[in-house]
Amino acid sequence: MIVGYALAGGAAPDGDLPPGTPLWMRVTQMALGLGIVAALGTVAAWVAFRPGPRTFTASGTFASGQTSERVGRMLFGAGAVLLAVVFVALLIVSVKRLRAPR
Q: How many domains does the structure of the chain reveal?
């Protein structure tokens, strides 16, 4: 939001930065997006795969209260894998946009 609207002046109809945006702004926006996804994935992977005891609680429609460590680690592991896929997809799209003629 900061790079796209405050610095670049908005977004193009395709959601990318407007034509003529300097390369450093494009790289900054890409780095910030990748950094956010990587930070979220790191937390999920830490909870799922690092050794040590974990305690999980669930609250929602189908479950509430304490749940098993295995279930909690499996859900965080699935989230970590999903975020890794999102990171790779975002990286590919970002590199393609950086290489596209402007």
A: 1
